[in-house]
Amino acid sequence: MSLATLLVLADGRLPAGGHAHSGGLEAQVSAGRVRDVDDVAGFLRGKLATSGLVAAAFAAAACDRPARSPDLDAGFDSRTPSPALRKASRAQGRALLRTARAMWSLPPVGREPHQPVALGVVASAAGLTPVEAAVAAAHGMVSGTASAAVRLLGLDPYAVHGLLARLAPECDRIAATVAARAGNPVDDLPAAGAPLLDIGAELHATWEVRLFAS
């Protein structure tokens, strides 16, 4: 285990484009479904149990066997029904690969893989394990959205980071669970969905004025 390398990959300051995305939160704030820290907590828990679980599973699988990243990319695409979310995921995957190439030697990867698949390939190149790749995916899924919540709602950043600390054990649990199945066939990986996020993403993509890309 390389904790320092994991910290580099999971660092929110990594110039991989994550700061430009709210993870679906902006649409839910606009709809009045998320208004305070408690609402953010519920949103993050739900996201971690659905899209976070899927992202962690695909990151772990891509780290376990980078050579099958094209099959994994197709599998993740089939689990992302929203065209807007597909576009956002591929944009973040492209940005992550561009950043990672400045740090590690990467194997051949598709031109625009989904972000979790790119994350797994990068983690493998950095010498990390599937469980570490899954931790980075799960943590990134909630930390980026939490940061967006501070900006969108003007929340106390101390309270929001307290929430992230309380979610950390759940990130670890999910990472351990999916890493144990990293070698499974693509069709057997998690496929949990969040229809409200898909609908919100499509509506958000039509806005002329917005703070975040997704």
Structure description:
Residues 70-90 are annotated as: Disordered. Its main location: cytoplasm. This is Urease accessory protein UreF. Belongs to the UreF family. It is found in: Cytoplasm. The mean pLDDT is 92. The protein is built from 10 helices and no strands. With 214 residues, the chain is an all-alpha fold. The chain has a single domain, classed as Urease accessory protein UreF, CATH 1.10.4190. It has helices at residues 3-10, 25-30, 37-49, 51-64, 69-78, 83-100, 115-125, 130-153, 157-179, 195-204. Helix 6 runs parallel beside helix 7 (115-125).
Which characteristics define this entry?
about 210 residues; mainly alpha; Urease accessory protein UreF; 10 helices; globular
The CATH class is Mainly Alpha
In the CATH scheme, what's the topology name?
Urease accessory protein UreF
Which word captures the global form? globular
Task: Please give the number of β-strands.
Answer: 0
- Name the beta content range: under 5%
Intertermini distance: 33 Å
CATH architecture assignment name: Orthogonal Bundle
The fourth-level CATH homologous superfamily is Urease accessory protein UreF
Order of helices and strands: HHHHHHHHHH
How many domains, as an integer? 1
What is the typical, i.e. mean, pLDDT?
Answer: 92
Q: What's the helix count?
A: 10
Low-confidence stretches: none
Largest sheet: none
Q: What's the helical proportion of residues?
A: 55-70%
Q: Strand pairing plus helix content: what structural class?
A: mainly alpha
Question: What value does the Rg take, in angstroms?
Answer: 16 Å
Family: Belongs to the UreF family.
Subcellular location: Cytoplasm
Keywords: Chaperone, Cytoplasm, Nickel insertion
Function: Required for maturation of urease via the functional incorporation of the urease nickel metallocenter.
